[in-house]
Amino acid sequence: MVDQVTLARVNLFAVLRTLEGLPGHDEETRKIANGKREVIQFTVGGVGKARLAVGNGGIEFMPGGGGATINLWFPNAAALNAMFAGTGNPIPIKGLTKIAYLKGPFTTLTDRLTHYLRAKPELLKDAAYRRANAELSLYTAFYALSEIANNDPDGKVNAARMADGGILISTSGGPAVSVVATGGKLETKKGRAPENRARMVFASLDDAGALIRGELSAYMAIGTGQVALGGYTPIIDHMNKILGLVPRYLS
User: Fold this and answer.
1) 3-state SS, residue 88
2) In angstroms, rounded to a whole number, what is the distance separating the alpha carbons of residues 219 and 93?
3) Taking 80 as the threshold, does the pLDDT of residue 130 lie above it?
4) pLDDT at 153 over 90
5) Which residues 6+ apart lie within 8 Å of 212 measured at CB?
6) What's the distance, CA 138 to chain centroid?
7) pTM higher than the cut 0.85
8) Which pLDDT tens digit goes with each residue over 154-188?
């Protein structure tokens, strides 16, 4: 069962956050990122706030509220989820003159991200697309994992069983993230974290993409050497159970 608050936090703190990496793969996104800077704040009742800065050469995700040129208000989690599903609209409480930006460049950004995350078999035949899909999906999935661990009832059960420490998830020649457990709460960080005490290393970015797309099981990947585990592996077992919940929220 999908919990609306958890889904909203996945949308706000995982999906939106992944936009940071999109300019590295997509020409349309680079053009928007090289334009005039706009800072969009998302204010969601019962969920939290986050800002997305677009322009001056890049895209930056910032948790929490602050200075913004546009502020979008959502009364509750369901309202934010409706926007992401394409069935609802935000209430702009700042930047009323910038509606065209939201309907134009910002919508283009979210459409381009969807293009890469919702892979079709024919698109995956292209090596550049496949790499973009794998990298962006890896970030989205592991950002989402921590939100699910901290908010979804089933996720909380497994997070509570994890010993304190971090797990490095990396790919040979590709991106890396760390999932850090502290007191039964998880946080996903880019790169390596000093708290890491276990590791899950993919032989290639392609292998990571295949696992996240559901084309490869973790157990099969371990058996074939496509994934290598090390360190204190019991915390990886619990993390993988939470990873199994990710498709519930990123279908």
Assistant:
1) coil
2) 49
3) yes
4) yes
5) 134, 137, 138, 141
6) 8
7) yes
8) 999 999 999 999 999 999 888 999 999 999 999 99
Domains and CATH numbers, the chain: 4-117 (3.30.1050.10), 137-249 (3.30.1050.10)
Continuous segment of H or E residues that includes residue 53:
strand 48-55
**pLDDT at site 219:** 81
The pLDDT of residue 109 is above 80: yes
- With CA atoms as reference, report the closest residue to 189 among 134, 145, 131, 157: 145
The answer to whether residues 84 and 114 touch, using CB atoms and an 8 Å cutoff, is no
d(CA 223, CA 226): 8
Q: pLDDT category, 251, cuts 50, 70, 90? A: confident
Question: 155 is written with which tokens?
Answer: 């996720």
Torsion from C-alpha of 85, 106, 117, 53, nearest 10 degrees: -120
Which residues are CB-neighbours of 79 under 8 A, at least 6 positions away?
Answer: 44, 45, 88, 90
